Hints:
It is a single chain. The protein has 5 helices and 8 strands, in the order αβαββαβαβββαβ. By secondary structure, the protein is α/β, with parallel strands linked by helices. It has a single domain, classed as Alpha-Beta Complex (YbaK protein), CATH 3.90.960.10. Strands 1, 2, 3, 4, 5, 6, 7 and 8 form an 8-stranded mixed beta sheet that branches. β2 and β3 form a beta hairpin. The longest helix has 12 residues. The protein is globular.
Amino acid sequence: MTNQLSTKAARVQAALESAHLQVQVKELSESTRTAAEAAAALSCSVAQIAKSLIFTGATTGEAILVIASGTNRVNESKVAELLGQPLKKASAEFVLEKTGYAIGGVPPVGHVQPLKTFIDQDLLQYEIIWAAAGTGHAVFSLAPADLERITGGQVVSIV
């Protein structure tokens, strides 16, 4: 862990502080780009990793954020039904444009624009979960209730 945060990790730290969340972004030497890598680096279960996945609303073209437990695969049809429109996989360029972050480091907060957000209900079973903090080496921990509060996300079944 380094003392001074990279620019993107610092942006996430600022967003967390703006949301009155007392947590500290950590930059690790190990990769946290995937849920499995993050869990190994943090010595936690893969299910405790809150992975931020960006989709595109097929009708509106809006960016949709789904925060999923690291072990879960998103049932796109189920989320599309909740959203009222089909989903498309987002390109890396779209993700960067709509969030300000590259795939593998997308955090649940600190985006360049507000995003419609869904939170995997399976994350609620844990006391602490971990999320990306802007880079493939930066993370932060928080309680699931805080994730819901700071994102304004709707808790749903995504599997």
